[in-house]
Write a structure and sequence with these properties.
Helix content is 46%, strand content 11%. The chain has 533 residues and is of the alpha/beta class.
């Protein structure tokens, strides 16, 4: 072969390669445009939801996955790459069929004339083979580049997801932030959120397969991920009953304190007086205390007006209580305090224990104990005309306590993970009759022990993580002293959850029994005292 022929062959092969590269680029670009834009196969939220449920069906009692557009790198990418490959193969087959129709099957003139133009047929075959090779290499390179870039992006998004989830989890653990419903008493790590566009519920707003920083709802609205961000932009609802929750829920510290006691023990009056005391304690400094929802605001105003005007409280209705919620502070450092006050009859009926779910999710309990329900106290008052009959509530303190403890055990709740504040009410009347103990917790415990509640005191200290005893006067803060402050039980329970409120600024009355050294008559057993020589 002469040098001229070698040069001619080289130029021909280069021309064929150039044509092959150009055709490959055109086919590849055309295929990707058709697959990604003109005939895109989008994985819809409904289809992605069905795939996830088929792969991992939700267990009994669990909610199905949320319906939103999947993260591109998680699902849509694989569909798009597959569609592009199929389109490239389809276009390559069409090119090969066209070449065969033109050159091999003789449709472009006489095939003998065409093959007589040697080596042009050989060059066309070489160009076709080169085109197929270039298309294969180019498509493989494109897929490798896309997957490499997506893998890097997926790694960064996974790291961001892990960091954001860790931040949210740590915040919830350190702050005690949960989503508690004041109506159905259901407590979850995070609430559900309604889409601002189509109002569909998103039950798990954490970063994940549906989005890292934002997720796109099925209606196209972008929603922020993480409760720390969604709490201020979306409407939170209870995961179970779907009723609206307060704005800082799952971000603010959440404290739930049921108030229990026997019929006529003074639970409602204690709630009213303790609210008044907490508000008075922060007047001169400390976080603001507000009522974040209309129902709590109305009930709170009623409670404050009742206790400050000195009116008598009416009997608590037998209906299930909704929480009276106070917000202490503002923003992410706020605390939501939920107070539950149920009628005493509910604690006496074991069949109705299942209705009081707020006991199982409590983080502290206040047991209001009427001292005039104790036989030892009423016996001391037997010499006063009408005294014992007028003051006695006729309740059974130990019976109510045992019923509540039974409810906790039956729900699988460990009482030793909770704290109990025993509030001995009607301290003002005890002082009037010279029966009030000293204000220290140990003195009140000893007083109750001597009054016949030794079983209750011993059982409480054995069952609960910590027990404190308080002497309270359920009156306006202007009529109480530091030793009979009704807000002391709540402040102690709040302090165990990481919130320390300032000491109350109370007005000590000149004739307050706590301000004098008047001796207090021991309780003991009056019958045994009379038989003693």
């Amino acid at each position: 072969m002469t040098l001229y022929e070698v040069g001619l062959l080289t130029v021909s092969l280069c021309a064929a390669a150039s044509v092959a590269l150009a055709i490959a680029l055109v086919i590849s670009a055309r295929s990707w445009v058709i697959a990604l834009a003109l005939k895109a196969d989008d994985i819809t939220p409904q289809a992605f939801l069905l795939e996830r449920m088929a792969a991992r069906p939700p267990s009994t009692g669990k909610f199905p996955p949320d319906m939103a557009w999947p993260l591109y790198a998680r699902r849509q990418l694989h569909t798009d790459v597959g569609a592009c490959v199929r389109q490239v193969v389809k276009d390559s087959q069409a090119l090969a069929d066209r070449w065969c129709d033109l050159f091999l099957r003789g449709r472009w003139g006489d095939i003998r004339l065409w093959w007589g133009c040697f080596p042009l047929p050989l060059l066309s075959i070489a160009a076709l083979l080169m085109t197929a090779l270039v298309i294969t290499i180019l498509t493989a390179a494109q897929i490798a580049f896309v997957y490499a870039l997506t893998a890097l992006l997926a790694l960064l998004l996974s790291l961001a997801t892990a960091v954001m989830r860790s931040v949210e989890y740590s915040w919830g653990r350190l702050r005690g932030a949960e989503a508690s419903c004041p109506t159905c008493f259901y407590v979850s790590r995070r609430p559900a959120y309604r889409c601002t566009g189509c109002t569909v519920l998103h039950r798990d707003i954490r970063p994940g397969q549906l989005g890292v920083f934002f997720r796109r709802c099925r209606c196209g609205v972008l929603l922020p991920t993480m409760a720390l961000r969604a709490a201020w932009r979306l409407n939170a609802v209870c995961q179970r009953c779907e009723r609206p929750l307060l704005t800082p829920t799952a971000v603010a510290r959440d404290v739930r304190i049921p108030i229990f006691g026997d019929v006529g023990a003074g639970k409602t009056r204690f709630l009213c007086a303790s609210l008044d005391a907490l508000l008075e304690s922060v007047k001169e400094g400390g976080p603001a205390i507000t009522f974040p929802d209309e129902d709590s605001h109305a009930r709170g105003q009623w409670a404050l007006q009742l206790i400050r005007s000195g009116q008598d409280t009416t009997k608590t209705t037998d209906a299930l209580p909704s929480a009276l919620t106070c917000q202490i502070g503002a923003g992410v450092t706020a605390t939501l305090l939920h107070l539950f006050d149920a009628a005493g009859e509910r604690f006496r009926a074991p069949a109705r224990h299942d209705e009081m779910g707020f006991l199982s999710t409590a983080q502290g309990l206040v047991y209001v104990l009427d001292p005039f329900s104790l036989t030892a106290v009423t016996d001391r008052l037997s010499g006063i005309e009408g005294g014992a009959a007028a003051l006695s509530s006729g309740g059974d303190p130990e019976g109510t306590y045992n019923e509540v403890l039974s409810r906790l055990r039956g729900s699988g709740v460990r009482p030793n993970a909770q704290r109990l504040a025993v509030a001995v009410s009607r301290a003002d009347l005890l002082q009037q009759h010279g029966l009030a103990p000293a204000a220290e917790s140990s003195d009140i415990r000893a007083w109750l022990y001597e009054a016949g509640l030794h079983n209750l005191t011993l059982a409480a200290e054995r069952e609960f993580a910590d027990v404190r005893y308080f002497l309270i006067a359920s009156q306006s803060s202007r009529l109480t002293t530091r030793n009979t402050d009704p807000g002391a039980p709540l402040r102690w329970l709040l302090s165990t959850r990481g919130l320390n409120l300032p000491d109350p600024l109370v007005i000590h009355l000149p004739d307050s029994p706590q301000d004098t050294a008047t001796p207090v008559a021991p309780i003991g057993n009056p019958a045994a005292d009379r038989q003693a020589p």
